Amino acid sequence: MEPVDLDFEEADLELPSEPMTLLMGPSHPAMHGTIRMVLKLDGETVQDVDIQPGYLHRGFEKMSERGTWSQVFPYTDRLNYVSPLLNNVGYALAVEKLLGIEVPRKGQIFRVILGELSRIADHLTGNGAIAMELGAFTPFLWFLKAREWIYEACEEQTGARLTHSFFRIGGAAFPPTEKLQSQIRSILPRVLEVIAEGESLLLKNRIFLDRTQGVGILTKEHALGMGASGPVLRSAGIDYDVRKDKPYLTYGECDFDVPVGEDGDTYDRFMVRSEEMRQSCRIIEQSLDLMKKIAPGSPEDAVSITDPRIVLPPKEKVYSTIEGTIAHFKLIMEGINVPPGEVYGYTEAGNGELGFLLVSRGGGNPWRVRVRGPCFFSLQAAHDMIRGKMLADIIPTFGSINMIGGECDR
Amino acid sequence: MSKLILERLKAQFGDDILEVSSFRGDDVAVVKPSRWLDVARFVHDDPRCDCTYFVDLSAIDNCDPRTDELDMDDRFEVYVIAYSVAKKHRVRLKTRLSGDEPRIASVIPVWSGANWMEREVFDMFGVHFEGHPDERRILTYDEFKGHPLRKDYPANRTQPLVEYRDGTFNKLGPFLQDEGMPLNRTVIPDERQ
To answer: How far is A66 from chain B (nearest CA, A)?
Structure first.
C-alpha cells in the first residue's frame, strides 16, 4: 500500500520552524490582570518566557515617604490583600524594632492569633485557586466558604473584613472582644473539616494528580539563589520558616511543625499550604490558651504600650483633657518621632518572608520604606518552572506560586 | 546575632570593609564599590559564612534635595541581604555610590535572583549594574522618564501614557501637593507644573 500523502508537495508538509511568540496577559484570567508573559512557543512547548510584572505598581515606597510612620498601615493592607493582618504585623514589628520597644504579652498573642487566621485565609484562597484553575470549582467554593468564617471572625475583632489597618506601632487599635475565644474556637474545627473535604475531592483525583505532580519543578539550589520563600521554598525541600528560625512574638512558645516538600512541584506547594493551615490552627488554639492564662489587670494584660509619644491617648482623654488633646494632635500632625537608624524587620507572611527595610533620619516621616514582597521573588523563580514545559502547565504552576499583584508590584 | 561574618569579612578584606555595625541586631558591612562582587562572592562561597540564600537587594537615596547637591558623593546606598539557612545568620552588605552616574558590578553571578532586584533598582534609582544581562525597566514602563524613588523626583508628578482628558472632566494626579499630608512632610516642588 502506498502512503496517502505521496502526492503532496514537500513544502506543504513543512511545519513552521520559527518559534511562535504569544502574549499571555495581562487580561488573561489566570494572570490576575497584572502579569504579562511573552512566550516563545515551539508547538505547545514553552521555549522561553519573559515575565513582565508592574501593571499594579502604585508607588508604595514613594507614598510611604510622604506621610508619617503610622500612615503606612493602610498601604500595607493592600500589599497582600488576602492576608492584610500579617502585613500589618510585619510593618508594626519592623518599626518597633527601630524604636526598640516591645508590645505587652496580650498584644503579642493577639497579633499571633489574628495573623494565623489571616494565613489560613491566604492559603485557602491560594489552594482553592490552584484547584479552580484545573477545573475543580467545588473545592474553591468550599474553601471560600471557610474563608468567609475567618473574615467574620476578623470583622468581629477589627471592624473590617478585608483592609483592617488594625495594628498600630506599639500595639493594636482595640483589645480583643469578648467573643474572641468562643468564636475562634468554634470556627477552627469547621475550617479543618472544610480543608479535609476539599482535599478529599482533589487528592484521589487522577486529573488533579497528573496535572500537578512533576509539574513546575523548582530545585533546591535555584530556590535559594532566587530568594523564593514561604511555601514555594519549603516545597523545594528547604526547612526555612521565620517563625521557627528566628521566633518573634510568642511563636517560640507554640508547638508547631514546619511542613517541607520533596520535589518542589505544584503538588508539593499545594500540600505544604494544606499542612500549614493545620499547623496554623494548632498555633491559634495554643495561643488562645496562652491568652487565657494572663492574669487580668497585670501589666501583661494590655494590647498596647502606654508611652504617649508612640500610642494615641484614649478618646475620653482627648476630648476632656488638654494633655490628651495635645498628645493626639502631635501624633497625628507630626507623627511618631522615630530615632535615626536603619533596620530590616522580617516576618513570615502568607507567601514567605515579608521584610521591611526602614530608614529613619529622625522626625515623623520615614526616609525610606523598602518592602521585600515575597511574591516578587517567587515570580522570578517561576521563569525556570515554566521554561521547557507545556503551555497548559503554566496555569497551575503560576497559580501555585500564589502571586498577589499588590505585593509583587507594590 | 553572630558577628562571625563581620569578623571573617574584616580578616579577609581589611581596609576594603569601610564600616561594620550591628544596630538592633542587624549585622551590616559597608564595602568599597570596587570590591562589591568579591565580597558578595566570599559571603556566598566561604563555608563558614555560607550565605547561599538571597534575601533582598535594593537601594537608598541619601540625598536631601533641599540641602544637598544632586551629584554628591555617597548619594546612593545599594545593599544586599544574604542568609544562611544552615547556620541561621544573615548579613547586610552595603556600598555607597556617587550621585553622578552611579555604577556598580552586578551580583547575578553569585545569586541569580539578583536579576529582577537590580532591574528594579535601575528602574527606581537609575543605578546601572555592570554585567547585567537584561537591564530594562521592570515596574514602570519603557517610556517612563526619570527614576521615581530618587528624592528629587516629585511625588505628585504624573506621566500618563494616555493624556488626561481636557474640559470639565479634570482628572488630577493621585495627590495634590498638600492633600492628607502631615505638617512636617517633605515636599519637593515639581518645576514642570
So the answer is: 6
Q: ipTM, 2 decimals? A: 0.83
d(CA B14, CA A370): 30
How does DSSP classify residue B126?
-
Backbone angles phi, psi at B57, to 5 degrees: -145, 125
Please report whether residue A194 resides in a domain.
yes
Parallel, antiparallel, or unpaired: how do β-strands B89-97 and B28-31 relate? Answer: parallel
pTM score over 0.90? no
What kind and span of H or E run contains A118?
helix A105-133
What region does B54 belong to: left with phi over 0, alpha with psi -120 to 50, or beta? Answer: beta
Residues of A in contact with B180 (CB under 8 A): 67
Measured between beta carbons, the chain A residues lying within 8 angstroms of B111 are 225-227
Q: Given an 8 Å threshold on Cβ–Cβ distance, is A344 in contact with B149?
A: no
- Give me the domain span that covers residue A198: 60-409
Q: Which residues of B touch A228 (CB under 8 A)?
A: 113
Angstrom distances, CA of residue A382 to CA of A176, A222, A265, B45, B152: 40, 10, 11, 25, 35
**CA dihedral (A252, A91, A369, A330) positive or negative:** negative
Dihedral in degrees, nearest 10, Cα atoms A265, A269, A272, A276: 170
Phi first, then psi, for residue A147 (nearest 5°) are -60, -35
Compute the distance between CA of residue B84 and CA of residue B53 in angstroms, rounded to an integer. 6
Long-range pairs for B182-187: beta carbons < 8 A, 24 or more residues apart: B182/A67, B182/A68, B182/A71, B182/A332, B182/A333, B182/A334, B182/A335, B182/A364, B182/A365, B183/A333, B183/A334, B184/A334, B184/A335, B184/A363, B184/A364, B184/A365, B185/A66, B185/A67, B185/A365, B186/A65, B186/A66, B186/A365, B186/B151
A16 located within any domain: no
Q: What is the pLDDT of residues A244-279, one digit of tens each?
A: 888 888 898 888 999 998 888 899 999 999 999 999
Residue B20: pLDDT over 90: no
> B55–A410: do the CB atoms touch at under 8 Å?
no
Minimum Cα–Cα distance from B188: chain A residue: A66
| Region B28-46 average pLDDT | 89
For residue A96, tell me if it sits in a domain.
yes
Tabulate helix, strand, coil % of chain A (nearest 5): 55, 10, 35
Residues B160 and B139: their CA atoms lie apart, in Å, by: 14
Contact A240 B85 (CB under 8 A): yes
Per residue in A383-402, pLDDT (tens digit) is 888 888 888 888 888 888 88
Number of domains chain A contains: 1
Going from N- to C-terminal start, the domains of chain B cover: 4-130
With bands split at pLDDT 50, 70 and 90, how would you rate the model's confidence at B166? Answer: low
Q: Cell triple for residue B190?
A: 515639581
- Residues A106, A294: contact at Cβ < 8 Å? yes
Give me the pLDDT at residue A194, please.
92
CATH of region B4-130: 3.30.460.80
| Contact (Cβ atoms closer than 8 angstroms) between residue A326 and residue A332 | no
Cell 529582577, located at residue: B116
> A70-84 pLDDT, tens per residue?
888 999 988 888 889
Domain harbouring A404, CATH code: 1.10.645.10
Domain membership of residue A2 (yes or no) is no
